[in-house]
Fold this sequence. Notes:
The protein has 559 residues and is α+β, with helices and mostly antiparallel strands. Helix content is 33%, strand content 15%. It has four domains: 14-93 and 457-487, Roll (Ubiquitin-like (UB roll)), CATH 3.10.20.90; 99-124 and 126-199 and 417-444, Acyl-CoA Binding Protein; 208-333 and 366-405, Pleckstrin-homology domain (PH domain)/Phosphotyrosine-binding domain (PTB) (PH-domain like, Roll), CATH 2.30.29.30; 494-556, no CATH class.
Amino acid sequence: xxxxxxxxxxxxxxxxxxxxxxxxxxxxxxxxxxxxxxxxxxxxxxxxxxxxxxxxxxxxxxxxxxxxxxxxxxxxxxxxxxxxxxxxxxxxxxxxxxxxxxxxxxxxxxxxxxxxxxxxxxxxxxxxxxxxxxxxxxxxxxxxxxxxxxxxxxxxxxxxxxxxxxxxxxxxxxxxxxxxxxxxxxxxxxxxxxxxxxxxxxxxxxxxxxxxxxxxxxxxxxxxxxxxxxxxxxxxxxxxxxxxxxxxxxxxxxxxxxxxxxxxxxxxxxxxxxxxxxxxxxxxxxxxxxxxxxxxxxxxxxxxxxxxxxxxxxxxxxxxxxxxxxxxxxxxxxxxxxxxxxxxxxxxxxxxxxxxxxxxxxxxxxxxxxxxxxxxxxxxxxxxxxxxxxxxxxxxxxxxxxxxxxxxxxxxxxxxxxxxxxxxxxxxxxxxxxxxxxxxxxxxxxxxxxxxxxxxxxxxxxxxxxxxxxxxxxxxxxxxxxxxxxxxxxxxxxxxxxxxxxxxxxxxxxxxxxxxxxxxxxxxxxxxxxxxxxxxxxxxxxxxxxxxxxxxxxxxxxx
Length: 559
């Protein structure tokens, strides 16, 4: 059904539901069709009393289960036009290299909340001892000092702090909570947590599942330092931003062009490629990499060029960076306001440590088992991803990787499991001996981003997309959405969109050509005299137009 009206119609109001870093808290924002993504982010930050907004973003999941960051410079409703209800997740987008360079404590608290989520979801991987200390810091911040009259037995087991929480880690965390962290205020405990977490290899890493040219499963992380690759829990490569010359993609291939200093005088070029799950996930990785690189490396946002990503065969994407860079943010001198707002930590309520399954539905996971082998033809050069032999030398004959690219393999290799397998392991009470060597899993964050799926209100019903819906129309929209989801497995949404555009355009072109042809041959306009006398037009009239004209005249009496 076609809907006519102004794009800037002020009577149309949409409602977005934003899940905060604490899964039990949401914010609703009403916005109009002309509002850009920045309007929603600024509204959320205003509700949270955050002035250092540049480090944060809003993330959503589309109908094909692909994650996106809301583009702040584009109209919000155009980016989520297929979503009903409209759901966002408030997240730290640019992790500060040093959290203590942030000017306000309330901003550091939000970064702490994000890292606490990362620890819970398996993205902030660390050794068992570090995991116990981080968990103890969270307990100290939430529960305060140990009180034997209140904290009886294994009191940490009641709270979900780690992705794979073992009894051994819980005992170590309780010991640290009762001894080393005794007397710490919530602010001091969170500071200790931030200091330790910011020094980990997986700090600020949101892992993306990819495969290298051998078909080996890897996780690609992008942060303020550059692009990192992990195999299991082991960091295998680190491509720093000064070495990255260009980033692009071709289809499902994410390609990084590097320049290494082979010695003091010569530089060696190298191309690294990774195979992503889908073309859309590859574009998402490319955009994340471009944004991270520009935010942390550009001196001014005005210096940002228009970056082209894909090749001619992959529907190339152009990206223009908007907003400020980290250097511009840090150059602001003095306090941002006279008095900082108070932080509501909720020391008295321990429920914030528990994840309520009834109010936090699971996020649709992106399948990670459908990857195919990487084809060299997708890359423009001969030296590909992790093209190293046993000596750490590039297969094309060239670049010895220095120590930052080949770290010591001191950490145990962690397997990647599905969410169902994890639940099954918990039900069967995996033994402590096995758990000690495999404490929790470095996972793709799709599997545990529960806030980026459906949100339910207090009645258990999804929030409405619009403030002023008509009940019958809302039912009709919901039924259309169901049909669209049911049919998504059969027909590609993008293919249908292209067909809907191509067929009317083709028909219109044919009609226009027919009208122009009749005008040329059936009118005596002097404008077309010279055109009619050309050999091509004479041949067209005698061989095609005249027979068709006689046929239509005899059958239908036309002309």
